[in-house]
Amino acid sequence: MNRRFIAGARCPGCGQFDSLFIEPQAPQERVQCIDCDYSNEKPSEPEPDVNSDNAVVLQFKPTTT
Ligand SMILES: [Zn+2]
Fold first, then answer.
1. Separation in Å, CA 3 to CA 18, 19, 20, 24, 46
2. What's the predicted TM-score (pTM) here?
3. Which residues surround ligand 1, an ion (CB under 5 A)?
4. Ligand 1 centroid vs 13 CA: distance in angstroms?
5. What is the pLDDT of residues 1-56, one digit of tens each?
6. What is the β-pairing status of strands 39-41 and 20-23?
7. Which of 2, 9, 31, 51 has the CA that lies 20 to 30 A from 45?
């Protein structure tokens, strides 16, 4: 069993810190808590906003010293 604990994460179920770990053996990686029965799907990566028409244009401003 290779549990990967999530440092600094707080369990929404019992409020314990550092009690959440990722269960890699599950078909779908799940976040579980060792202190309570909390279990949830691993948060997926945020998808890029493909529907954004308002692209942020970064303007390069050279600093004049
Ligand atoms: Zn918990």
1. 12, 11, 10, 7, 24
2. 0.57
3. 11, 13-14, 33, 35-36, 38
4. 5
5. 678 999 999 999 999 999 999 987 767 788 999 999 999 987 666 666 666 666 66
6. unpaired
7. 2
What whole-number distance in Å separates Cα of residue 55 and Cα of residue 49?
Answer: 10
Which residues share a beta bridge with 39? 32
What lies within 8 Å, CB to CB, of 5 at 6+ separation is 18, 20, 21, 22
Query: For residues 41-64, b (16+ Cβ closer than 10 Å) or e, as one string?
Result: eeeeeeeeeeeeeeeeeeeeeeee
- Give residue 37 CA to ligand 1 midpoint distance, Å: 6
